[in-house]
Amino acid sequence: MPTPVTLTPGPLTGEDVVDIARRDAEVVIDPSAVEAMTASREVIDGLAEDTTPHYGVSTGIGALATKQIPHDLRSQLQRSLIRSHAASSGTHVDREVVRALMVNRLATMCTGRTGVRPVVAETYAAILNAGITPAIGEYGSLGCSGDLAPLSHCAMVLMGEGDVLDGNSTAPAAEALAAAGIEPVELREKEGLALINGTDGMLGMLLMAIEDLRRLYACADIAAALTIEALIGTDAVFAEDLHALRPQPGQVDSATNMRILLADSPLIEEKKAGEHRFTRVQDAYSMRCAPQVHGAGRSTISHAASVAEFELASAIDNPVVTSDGRVESNGNFHGAPVGYVLDFLAVAAADAASISERRTDRMLDKARSHGLNPFLADDPGVDSGHMIAQYTQAGIVSEMKRFAVPASADSIPSSAMQEDHVSMGWSAGLKLRRAVDGLQRVIAIEILTAGRALDMRDGGIASSKSSAPLTAVRRKIRESVEGPGTDRYLAPEIEALRLLVASGDLVEAAGAELGFPLK
């Protein structure tokens, strides 16, 4: 179980958010956060009696902000706001997305800039700690004015209304709260608004994608190195001085990985000694340029991580309670910064998948595989080998190219033209999750194929001519998937490799052999 995460008025780390979202780390609210929330709530309570209209305190919401709300209807305003905004539709989003969204909203409450009472944050934390997950449809957020519909479903559960996830179905929130001994909260002035104004869902998806992609790009370097061995390519292009000529940080890291993965590889050393009958001055781009493509993806991740870090340090609400006690409207809920990098990562992921598929195809083509059986079939003609596995890659890559079309370039006006420009960041996050899943599968198929090709080249693990770290990777593969032979049911083998890629086990196997982690 991960270490509990303490929420203060200061920012969380991305690792904290992911630990809570994915690994159910306990949430603890620090007394300093309670003090900050108490202080800002006093400001809101003071405004509640003011005859001057204050947005979200004594007025309607959005295009209805010109309507002043009588004192005795303000609690109803907050309930009505949440009920009407909990309007999502479609397939339920994943549990980890909901939890990431919730902890990001909770962290903003703990800054003391939203004006909620401490009991609101404490109950929100109790819901997280109890493992209760609001049921949220995938459609409903435009990524501006906050992830409104998704956050509203979470606020509904806080009120003891709506539905929560219950296995493959849903259950009433009231029952789930009662079973956990959690009292619903009756919202007061501004609290409904404070619960739904934020980039929390798209930020959560960004943080999880960053964690996944960092692992996947290390695995992509392993996949490329395996393929280069399988095709008896050259490691000369990964020399340190060559990449110093173009010192893009991500490229340098990727080249370093590939250089150390291929160092002292008997298959490559044999080629250098002239023991093979063919000579290539240069390998194809999909092999030779792997560090440039994988490195560009790494640099994109670094940029996205810097955007996420700023977002984690933000207190996003509208209106916001400032440090000097003002309550001010603002536009910090606009998701453009997060939406852009979500789209950017989808572009990088599509390209990493594309180059992986091209490497796979070379191993299957008799004209380009340098002595391997067509499609790596045991008995070509009787057997088809990995022919259709490459089709699967191609289908995924084609879909990923569609996911690379930016969501953030679109905008549809809403709320009677009051909200006339939106970010579509939530949509960008959802399609990035599909892209990350696709990249896992494409890399898995390349590694599965390269492992088979290498076994056909050198006879298998017992007589491996791979480098030491790549032999360790091949050994890990063979723990889950049998070596070459006549055709067999391939889908379970692809899934087994996907799990190895997603878990990071292959990256750990290489690192354990090297004695240090890959970059």
From TrEMBL:
Location, primary (coarse class):
cytoplasm
GO cellular component, alphabetical, reads: cytoplasm
Record keyword Lyase present:
yes
| One Gene Ontology term of the molecular function aspect | histidine ammonia-lyase activity
Q: Which GO terms fall under biological process for this protein?
A: L-histidine catabolic process to glutamate and formamide; L-histidine catabolic process to glutamate and formate
Q: What Pfam families does the record tag this protein with? A: Lyase_aromatic
**Entry keywords, A to Z:** Histidine metabolism, Lyase
Pathway membership? Amino-acid degradation; L-histidine degradation into L-glutamate; N-formimidoyl-L-glutamate from L-histidine: step 1/3
The EC class name is lyase
Claim: Lyase is one of the keywords in the record: yes
Signal sequence residues: none
Q: Where in the cell is it found?
A: Cytoplasm
Reaction(s) catalysed (UniProt annotation): L-histidine = trans-urocanate + NH4(+)
E.C. number: 4.3.1.3
User: Which residue spans traverse the membrane?
Assistant: none
The entry sums up its family as follows: Belongs to the PAL/histidase family.
Identify the NCBIfam families for this entry.
hutH, PRK09367.1
Query: What name has this protein been given in UniProt?
Result: Histidine ammonia-lyase
Taxonomic source organism: Nesterenkonia sedimenti
Question: Upper taxonomic classification of the species?
Answer: Bacteria, Bacillati, Actinomycetota, Actinomycetes, Micrococcales
